[in-house]
Amino acid sequence: MVIVISFIILVQFLFTEPLSPHPMLGDLTATSVKLFVQKPSESIQSVTISLPRANQSVVTEQTIIQLTNLEPNTKYEYAINGEYKESWWFKTRPDEDVSARIAFGSCANEKEGSSKVWNQMNEQKINALVLLGDTPYIDTTDLGVQRKRYQEFAAVPAFANLVAHTPVYSTWDDHDFGRNDTDGNLKGKENSRQAFSEHRPNPTVGENGQGIYTSFKQGPVEVLLLDARWFARTEISENNIPTLLGQQQWDWLERELKASTAPFKILACGMIFNGATRPGKTDHWGDYPIEYYRLLSIIKRNSISGVVLVSGDIHWSRVIQHNTKAKIGYDLIEFITSPIHEKLISAANAPHEGDLFSVGEINSFLLLDATTNNDRQSIKMTITNASGESLYVYKLDSIEKSSNE
């Protein structure tokens, strides 16, 4: 069996002392996987990736590689520079992909509380982890600091253990983009994008050197990860109103939604899709009403079914029903999951007419379970804490029935 290596980027890291490899699984399909491997030091120009089951050993100078021509539904253990660890393995997706178990989370740090969440996700045996931003906190566009913070975040044992065998898909929010509550006019944002590209093995990283939006599919679910920072307030609409996603990303999003065959399309970003949050906060979709209605317009004119919203950022978890049935034929449900760490912001629990559930729960995350039963596909969205307790459950199925508990 031949392993084809697709080189993604070549970078030189400035380390002052040796680092452990801290591998991170990325985009995973039935026949391929992306893998991030941190070089141990600047003096070491290459690493060796070995897959004993495939009888292959690959020497690479890249930090992100793609292994292809793999067998579906097969477990592969891997080694780095001859070193094996129990958590260093992955299992390819099945040819008949009918289920998924995906965790979503935002706002994490390197403290014990966040580690409890990573451990709980591991116990839940998730198929993918979606990071919605502020993962990690960086608050500068200095390239050296950006790289250092990604490395420190990846070195947390509980996180490293989880992502060594669980594919990670990421977008950013304000703090990892470079500054609190900022937009696309932030100086040095190109450095933030470079560091992100070096450390997050996403399927793609935006287009034309702009943004970091991407998508992936597991079972009956397609997740479209939006970038609500890079283009924000950098373009002006024909009504002389600042845009949020930017024309390039809007074109991509409409193409992706139209082409998607998934019964459920999860639109996910760090920024909440509504305006009910703490006073004075401006980085939310409620501050871009024209952009929000543009989203509804795309859904309506293309008859897109099964859209679900997922967001984070505000240090409060909520489930909100958007009153959109008259506009698109069904009400959008938004699941806000925040924080993975310990800091809550009670002022984020602002009134919203569609509020179905609201809780200030530290060390929490959102768990999506997707299943297929004959011709019916269903998803269950559960707000979960670090102990594994289900705080709220909402169920949807592909024939547009729903229920909550």
What's the layout of helices and strands?
Layout lengths: L23 E5 L4 E4 L10 E5 L4 E5 L3 E4 L7 E3 L1 E2 L8 E3 L8 E6 L6 H12 L4 E4 L11 H12 L2 H7 L4 E3 L3 H4 L11 H11 L14 E5 L2 E5 L21 H13 L4 E5 L20 H13 L5 E5 L5 E5 L3 H4 L4 E4 L18 E5 L4 E10 L2 E10 L4 E8 L4 E3 L1
Helix pairs in contact: 1-3, 2-5
Give a structural overview.
The chain is 19% helix and 27% strand. By secondary structure, it is of the alpha+beta class. The strands form five sheets. It has a seven-stranded mixed β-sheet with strand order 11-10-9-19-20-21-22. It has eight helices and 22 strands. The model is unreliable at 1-18 (pLDDT under 50). The protein has two domains: 24-90, Immunoglobulins (Immunoglobulin-like); 97-404, Purple Acid Phosphatase, chain A, domain 2 (4-Layer Sandwich).
Q: Let me know the CATH homologous superfamily of the largest domain.
A: Alkaline phosphatase D (PhoD)
* Number of H/I helices: 8
Head-to-tail CA distance between termini: 49 Å
CATH class of the largest domain: Alpha Beta
- Enumerate the strands of the largest sheet in spatial order, edge to edge or round the barrel: 11-10-9-19-20-21-22
Q: Could you state the order of secondary-structure elements as H and E?
A: EEEEEEEEEHEHHEHHEEHEHEEHEEEEEE
| Main sheet properties | 7 strands, mixed
Radius of gyration: 20 Å
**What fraction, in percent, of the residue positions are helical?**
10-25%
How is the CATH topology of the largest domain named? Purple Acid Phosphatase, chain A, domain 2
Q: How many distinct beta strands?
A: 22
CATH level-two architecture of the largest domain: 4-Layer Sandwich
Note the beta-strand portion: 25-35%
Give the overall shape: globular
Question: Uncertain segments of ≥5 residues (pLDDT<50)?
Answer: 1-18
**Structural class assignment:** alpha+beta
Average of per-residue pLDDT values: 92
